Amino acid sequence: MRLNVIGAVCRVSSPSGRKRRRPAVLLPLMLLALSTAGIPPVSQAGARNTAVTPFTLTARTYDYAHDPRGKVVSRYTLARRSDGTTVLAVSAPDGPGAEHIGANTFPIRTLKFLDGRTIEIFDPIRGVINWPRASRREVALRRARILGTDSDCVEADEYVAGHTTLQGENVLILKMLPEGSSGVTSWRAPSLGCERLQYTKDSIQANGSIETVIEQKLISFKLGAPAAGLFYVPHAYTKLIPSQALREEMKVRGVRWDDALTRRAQSEDADYYRMMREDLRSKGAKK
User: Fold this and answer.
1) Per-residue exposure over 244-274, b if at least 16 CB sit within 10 Å of its own CB, e if not
2) DSSP category for residue 17
3) Cα(269)–Cα(205) distance, rounded to whole angstroms?
4) pTM of the model
5) Residues 6+ apart with CB under 8 A from 94
6) For the chain, N or C: smaller number of CB within 10 Å?
7) Residues 20, 129: contact at Cβ < 8 Å?
């Protein structure tokens, strides 16, 4: 799941590939400028696997735009099972300093399956969103990445700037061509389906200097089967549509509902129903 930082709001890609905004987190990321001296290049051909590599990683996101010292604005766990199912569990901190994302924590778990299903789990409100299945093209692309049949980790507007290791994993350092006064650097692991392990968003200042505004730091990384509880979907949870989940989330966070949230809810519902129609058409075409 790709997350981009927009101000103090985390924008999460919906299963359709369109951006969904959630004030749950800021996902951006990292700053370990590790030396590449003496480290052999990442072999992309060697990243072609016949089996999925299970792993668990944890990371923190720091916001330097609102606090030069770096304020922790999210903590998250990303884990993948050997069947290719991936979970992203994100929570924002509570207490002082969390005003711009709500006063209370609100953990969200997002499960993505190789067959195109996505489930969002909201444990604080005992609710889930069962997103309609992604398109066949999106499913094929995801399977190619995770199963290792497509080891090209370079995305649109990116170029390979180097290679290094993070917590023992070979990674590519990828830079995105600057958009205006900002630039993005990602650290992706070819052997893990090109997952992004770290990320930074930099801003070019008027004097030409570069300052990091968002950083995601990799805290821990472990190969092997992840904890089963991360993937658990309680059957008793209420099935919700996006606007219902967003409204309940804001209640828990103590965020006042306003016109901007209304527009966001309408947009997320529109995505949901559009995907539902596309899924139904796809099923009809197979018959």
Assistant:
1) bbbebbbeebebeeeeebeebbebbeebbee
2) S
3) 38
4) 0.75
5) 103, 104, 105
6) C
7) no
Rounded Cα gap, residues 25 and 58, in angstroms = 14
Distances (CA, A) of 88 to 159, 230, 239: 26, 9, 19
pLDDT of residue 286: 64
Q: Name the residue with tokens 């290094």.
A: 164
The whole-angstrom separation of Cα 64 and Cα 148 is 35
| Residue 211: burial class (beta carbons within 10 Å; 0-12, 13-18, 19+) | exposed
39 touches 164 (CB < 8 A): yes
State how far the Cα of 97 lies from the Cα of 254, in Å rounded to an integer. 14
Helices 259-286 and 242-253, axial angle in degrees (round to 10): 150
| ∠ CA 182-187-188, rounded to 5° | 125
What span, in angstroms and rounded, lies between the C-alpha atoms of 102 and 26? 12
- pLDDT (tens digit, 9 = 90+) per residue, 215-244? 999 999 999 999 999 999 999 999 999 999
Residue pair 247/264 in contact (Cβ under 8 Å)? The answer is no
